[in-house]
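LOG
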Amino acid sequence: MEFKHIEYFLKTCEYTSMSKAAEALYISQQALSRCIAGMEQELGCQLFQRTVKGISLTKEGMYLLNKFSPLVTQYHHVLDEVTEHFERQPVKLQFCCAPLIFRCIDPELLFDFQEKYKNITLEMLELSDADCDKYIEENVTRLGLLAIPENRHGEKIPYTLVKTFPLYLFVHKDNPLAKKQSVNFSELKNENFLMLDKKSYYKNLVWHYAKKYHFEPKVAFESSDANQLISLVNKGRGVALSLEPMYDKGVYGNLVMIPFDDKDITWSIAFIYQDYERLSNAAHKFMSFIIENVR
């Protein structure tokens, strides 16, 4: 029985919910369930009663809780003392970041973080969505901050959600769609799409919803520059999907932003990594700080 499995068990006791405990531990609910099942098999007893209303400790589970809880509490107390001692040492935290992330998240948070944790120096590498994935896959200790569509979550790399944003349709004011209060994705069948290039998961999102609504999008232009695409929409060259922070009426006077009637058409910012437990303490602090201050 590994020590982390004991911590998982105690966290499950604390939340009396597999899903909430898994979220707090930054692991999947399936992984936590397998861990608890493995402990039960190893000990030869049932630790939790599972019902439609949730979970509760069995007599054996309560025994385990009483035995392990003070030991784990003491361990974390000592760990905090050791961490506090070594936090005085300078640390560099490198992370990859997709373009436009800090159009959606206030970049002041980076300065605020470094003011709070003066020993941690942030080093940001701006990479495309696809290159962020490759960067993470190359090293188990690496961290990334990526904008990913909801339908792509969990496909390749573990993630921790920071915030989800609705996507909007950007159209020229003379486009007939500009008069609508909301638009259905199927209405874009005959529109010219202005797309971010293949290194962005934006393109995957457009094709995903086009397939859902039974048409093939007409791609008029591709670029890695989101501002260039919006400028082309402003000139009436096509339509684009984008985020509210990209809408600047003062710069793009001909632009109209319309919500979709399908509220599942979203774009999320998430931390990606291979193994949360292999990330540095500085990475854990950075993740917690960003999540707490963005949500």
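LOG (cont.) second protein
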Amino acid sequence: MDENKAPTVPYVYVHDTGAVHDALPVKVVSSCNLNIYTFPFDIQNCSLTFNSYIYYNEIQILLGRSAEEITMNSKTVMTTMGEWELLDITAKKLENDDLTGFYTDQLTFHVRVRRRATMYVMNLLLPSCFLITVDLFSFLLPPQNIDRSSFKMTLILGYTVFLLIMNDLLPVTGNIIPLIVFFSLCLALMVASLLETILITNLLCNSADFSPVPGWIKVLVLLQELRSLSSVLRAIRSQMEQQQQQKEKQSSEDWIQVGFIIDRLLFGLYIVFISISFITIIIIWVNSYNQ
């Protein structure tokens, strides 16, 4: 806490009862430990304790106004709160049961403030959600006709540049917070999507040269049950029947179907991740504003 920077007031209030009231303003700058685990939806509780370090029971510290009145007056004075919004101020006086008399009165104020999350939602969360949603819809592009990899690589580069630019908005901390985990998972899903696209392209172009699909892979991806559900694979099967022998055709179409099933599984994973992320963000935001 810095020193008192308030100007001196050389006046006192003298009442008709003989009481003398000396009001000394105090202007200090204090610091507060922040718990940023729920950033940018965090609510901080800062405490200010007033007591005497020289005199013991000779000085009594009393609360002149109620905590509700202090909160209302503080909200009126704080016309520009910037990043933080004042929620309430509570006061608590320390009860001393020391019979020796060597104790000091203590009065503690707890100030609760809430971070205004709109700027962080607009600049951090929404762009991330939009980019990963665009990557999700890229699964609708037919891999046999369109090069998905170039499109996905562009998204990854754009998302990386976005994280570098927005790095100044993130709090500097050595602890892991959910927002950083969310960004890391988004980037990991994009990279996994690109690797899966490379695998699909390789299967489409070179599946004729591969050995037959092992039995455990057929069981893993439910190859036999899903074979009749894909019209795309039936078209590929009819084309390959005209160009290759039956044995080569069967091995090739099996590998292609393995690739398409992996594509569907990652598409489903994308949908689950985006749904859970959106619901979690909305719940945290609503709960923070209801407190």
